[in-house]
Fold:
Amino acid sequence: MKKSLVFFATVAFALVMLYSCNNGAKTEESESDSPFVKGQWTLNFFGEVTTYQFNGDMTGKFISSKDGDSYDFTYETTADSIFFTNVADKSVKRYAYTFINDDKLRFNWPGNNMVYDRVSRK
Structure:
C-alpha cells in the first residue's frame, strides 16, 4: 500500500512539473499567431500619416509623413503592451495596446489614444 501511494505521488508530481514547464512556453506556431506579425498599421490624422510596419522576425519600421521621420525597430509584445527598441539609438518605448477588431488597433499612452487601421503593404 505504501509503495502504491509513493508511486502515485511521484507520477502526480511528474505530471505537474511537465505541465508547468510547458505551460508558458512559446512555440513557433504560437509566435506566428501574434497580431503584429507581418502587419502594417496606418493612421491618417488630418493628413499626417503615421505607419508602423511589423515583420514576422520581430523587426519593423516606423514612418511619419510629418517631417519625413522614420526609423527601424525591434519589438516584443505582452498581452497588453508592446515594447519598441529603436535600432539606431537603442531607446525603448512602451505602449499599451488594444484591438478593436482584426483591422483596428489602438495604441494607448498618456494624452493619445489613436486608432490605427490594418492596411495591405505597398
Notes: The CA atoms of residues 48 and 67 lie 9 Å apart. The first strand starts at residue 39 and ends at 45. The two ends are 70 Å apart (CA to CA). Residues 2-23 form the longest helix (22 residues).
